[in-house]
Automatic annotation (TrEMBL):
Alphabetical UniProt keywords: ATP-binding, Calcium, Calcium transport, Ion transport, Magnesium, Membrane, Nucleotide-binding, Translocase, Transmembrane, Transmembrane helix, Transport
One cellular-component annotation, GO: membrane
Lineage, opening ranks: Eukaryota, Viridiplantae, Streptophyta, Embryophyta, Tracheophyta
Principal location listed in the UniProt entry: membrane
PANTHER family, sorted: CALCIUM-TRANSPORTING ATPASE
Organism for this UniProt entry: Zingiber officinale (Ginger)
Name of this protein: P-type Ca(2+) transporter
Claim: Ion transport is one of the keywords in the record: yes
Amino acid sequence: MGESVRDFELREYFPAWARSASECELELSVSADDGLDSEQVSWRREIYGWNELEKHPGPSIWRLILDQFRDTLVRILLGAAVVSFFLAWFDGNLGEAGIASFVEPLVIFLILIVNAAVGVWQENNAEKALEALKEIQSEHATVKRDGEWIPNLPARELVPGDIVQLRVGDKVPADMRVFHLISSTCRVDQGSLTGESAAVNKTNRSAISEDTDVQGKECMVFAGTTVVNGSCVCLVTQTGMDTEIGKIHSQIHEASQCDDETPLKKKLNEFGELLTTIIGVICALVWLINVKYFFTWEYDNGWPCNFRFSFEKCTYYFKIAVALAVAAIPEGLPAIITTCLALGTRKMAQKNALVRRLSSVETLGCTTVICSDKTGTLTTNQMSAVKIVAMGHQTDSLRAFIVEGTTYDPDDGEIHGWPADKMDENLQMIAKIAAVCNDANISQSAHQFVATGMPTEAALKNNTILLSSICLFPWKLDSFFIGVAPVSVLVEKMGIPSDFSTLLQESSILLRCCHWWNGIARRIATLEFDRVRKSMGVIVNSELGNNSLLVKGAVENLLERSSYIQLLDGSVVRLDESSRNLVLEALHEMSTNALRCIGFAYKTDLSELATYDGEDHPAHRCLLDPSNYSSIESDLTFVGFVGLRDPPREEVREAIKDCREAGIRVIVITGDNKGTAEAICREIGVFGPDEDINSKSFIGKDFMLLPDRQNILRQKGGLLFSRAEPKHKQEIVRLLKEDGEVVAMTGDGVNDAPALKLADIGIAMGISGTEVAKEASDMILADDNFSTIVAAVGEGRSIYNNMKAFIRYMISSNIGEVASIFLTAALGIPEGLIPVQLLWVNLVTDGPPATALGFNPPDRDIMKKPPRRTDDPLINAWILFRYLVIGFYVGIATAGVSVIWYTHGSFMGIDLSGDGHTLVSYSQLADWGQCSTWEGFQVSPFNAGNHIFSFDENPCNYFQSGKVKATTLSLSVLVAIEMFNSLNALSEDGSLITMHPWANPWLLLAMCISFGLHFLILYVPFLTRVFGIVPLSFNEWLLVLVVAFPVILIDEILKLVGRWRSSSQLGRSSKRLKID
C-alpha cells in the first residue's frame, strides 16, 4: 500500500460528515481492517505535520518592557527623570541638599518601573486562553497501523487516515469520522467545544447536508471532546490546526492581535501629545524670557560684541524647564486610575460581575451594543411545563390545564382545574409516560432545585438495556435533556390516582410520584432518540407481566406514527383526520407562544417484543439496530402533549428597558429556533408586542448571505439572530466594531472564545461557561444573568464619571503648577517651587483626594443618558477654559504669596512681620539678579521655627537660600488650593450648595490626610531639609487660607455659567425638535 505525495493528498474541503464510511475510506486511501502502514504515515506527516496546535511565539520580555514606554506621558516622564538625574549628578553636592535633588528622578524612575511591571504582567495574561485551549487536547490514542492496534500512541503522531478506537473516558485526539460503533450507543461530551450541557449521541450515519453546523455532524467526533458512554472506531480526517479546535485557536490568536486601546487610554494618549506641545511651548517661552540672564552682549558701533554666556544661569533656567515638565505631568495619574478601577471591580463583584481586566471597567461605561445569548442569560435556563393538553370525551374535543411554577421545585405552583380527587384514564396515561419515559432526575442543593442528569448506573442495576442515556430534540441538542427535568416536576404536580395517594404520604423521596409510576411500570429497554424519528421510547413491564411501549417526542412525528387516540375515559378509537387537525391547531397555537411541545403515546401490541425480558431474548437483536425503531414505534395510541418553556428572568424586562433609556441597543444571538426566540424577545421588550420585525429578525445563516449586513446592524432598536453559530457572532462583532460601536458580547463555549476576544467587552458565563471562554473574556457573570451586565454598565459609567472628576482635578492642579512656575520665570522673581516639591504634591498630597473622588455617588440619571462616544473629548473647550482660569488663579496665588511675603509686612489685616524678615520693593524683587550691584543693600536675620537665617556675608543670598519661607508659603498655598479644588470636583456643574461636601465623606477624610502629610514635611526637621521648606506660624497659615479660598468662589461662578450654557443648549435643542 505504498504511496507518494502525488498519490495522496486530502482535498482541502472534504465533507466527511456528509459521506458514507466507505466513501471516506476511499477518499483517505486507507483500509479500516489494516490502517495505515509506516510509509503512508511518513508521507502524510510531511504534508500535514504533527497533530498539535501551533505555538505562537509571544513577544520577548524586553519587547514587552519597551512597549510599556510607548505612551507619550510615560516618555515625557522618562525624559524629565533622565535630565533631572544628570543635573543632580553634575551638581556633585553630596550633602542633604544634594541627596534631595536625587529624590525626584529616583521617584519618577520607581513609578515607571512599577507601571512597566504591571503592563508586562497584563500582557502575559493575555495569552492564557490559548494555553487553556491546549489543556483540553488528548495526549494518547489507540491506533491501528500495519494491521495491528497500537495502544497509547502519542496523539501528536496521528495523521489523516489513521484508524482510532475510542472508549469511555477517552479524550478525542483529532477530528474523526465515526466508522462504526462497537457498543450499541456512543455518547460524547462536546461541551468543551460547543458549550452544550448534554452529551451527544454519535452514529455512523452520514449527515443529510454538507452545510451543517458542528452540532449537526452526528457522525463526527472532535478533538478535545470526551467519550462518556460506549465505544467506537473512527477515521481521522483532520489534525492539528485543521481541526475545529485548531480553527478556534487561530481565531483566538488573530483576535488577540487586534486588541484595541481602551477609549480612556486613547484619550490619555491624545492628552499626552497635547501636553508635549504645551510643555515645549512653555519651556521655549521661559528660555526666551530669561535669555538675557545667561546670554549677554555689548554693542560697538551698533554691532553686538563681547558675548558672555553664564553656564550657571543657563543651568538654573534649564532646571526651571525641568520643573515645568514635572509640574505639567500628573505623575500620580496612572496609580490613581488603577486604584479607581480596582475599587470598581470590587463593586462589580458584589453585583455578580467578575472583572478580569481592569481596563474593562472603563470600557463598560461607553458600551453601545450588548450582544446577548438567550438561554440562561435572558431566561432562567430552567424549562418548566406551563400547559397540558389532554383528550376530551369525544374525538372532537380537547382539554387544557394551565400549570404554575417556573422552577424545578415540585411544590412551586399547581395545575389549575386539575381533577385531584379522580384522575381519569387519559391523564393517568400522560403521567405514566412522562414519569417512566424519562432519564432526568431532580436534586435539592440548599434552597435550589437542579436537574442532575441521567442515573446510568442505577439504570444498569435495574437490568435496563441503556441504548440511550439522553434524548435530544432538533431545536437544540440539549433541549430535550432540559425538557425532561420539568416533565418530572410536572408528574409530581399531577400526582397519582387517589386510590394510592396514601402510599406516598410518608415517603421522603423528592420525586415520589415518578418513583411510584416507575414501580408499577419497570423499564426493561430504551429506544434512543434520533433526528429522523424525533422521539424516544421505552419498553416497560407492568405488575401483571405485560409489556408495553411508552413513547414521547415531537408531536407532529408522533401523530404521523399514531393510528389511535385515547379519550378521557381510557377508551381507544381511530385517529381520524379531524382529530389530527384539532391536535395540530392546538400545537400551532402553543408553538407561536414560544412553547416547546412534547407529545405522549403508547402501544400495547408489541408482537415479538411482547415477551421481551432482557439480552437473552431472541428479539434483542432487533433492538441493537436503531433503524428498526421507527417500525417498532408505529401504530401508536396518542394520548396528549405538554407545552414547556424556558421562562424569562423576572428582572430582564426592566433591564432591557434600562438599556433602551440608556441608549444601548440589545442584540439577541441564539442557537434556538426563530419562532421561540421572537416570542421571548417580544415578552422581555426587545421587540414591541405589535412591532413589525421582518427586517429585525434573521436566521444566522441567512443573514451572512445578505449584501447589506452593515445597514441592517445600524437599525435602531433590538435585533434577533436565531440558529446562530459562533462564526456568525464573530462576523456580527466585527461589523459592529467597524461601524464604531463599543460591543459587549456574551458566550460560554470554546467556540465562543474568538468572538469574546474580538469584542470590546467579552462576557463569559460563570455557571455554564467553559474555562477557555472564561480565559478569553474580560468579565465573567457569576449568575449568568443579563441584568448583571446592565448593572455593570451602569457601574462602569459611574466609575468613568468619577475618573473624569479626578483626572480633571489633577489636570487643573497641574495647570496651576505650570502657571505658577511660568509666572515666576516671567516676572523674574526668585524660583518659588522646586521639582521635588512639585513631585510630592503630584504624587502624595494630590493622591488621597483624587482617589476619594472615585467614591463620588453615581448620578441618579446615569442610565438615562446615551452612552458617550469613544471620540468624545476627555476635556472639552469649556472645561479647558474653566481650568485655565482656575490654573491662572493658582499661578497668581502661589507666585503672589511669595511676592506678598517679600514686599508686605501685613496683608488684609494679617501681620507678617513677626519673623523679622526684611521687606523689599517689587522692582528689587523682580531684578534680584542684579542684587550685587545695589549699593548699601542690607538684610536683617529672620527666624523660621527654631532656625535663624542670617545673611551678613552675602545679603544677596536673601533671594536664594533666604527664599525658603516664601517657597514654603507658595507650596502651602498650592496644597490648600488643591484641597479646596477637590471640593469643586465633586460635580462638574453642580454647586457645593446642592452637592454638599459630605456627600462624599471619603473626600473629607482624604483632605485631612493630605493636610496631615503636608504638616508632616513642614514640622519634621529631617523632611523640612529634604524638601527645602520651614515651619509656618499661625498668621502665615491665615495668609495661606485667605489666598487659597477664592478658588472655590471662582469655580462656583464658572459652574453657574456652565449651567446657564447647558440650559441654553437644551432649550435650542428642544426648539429644533419642535420645528422638526
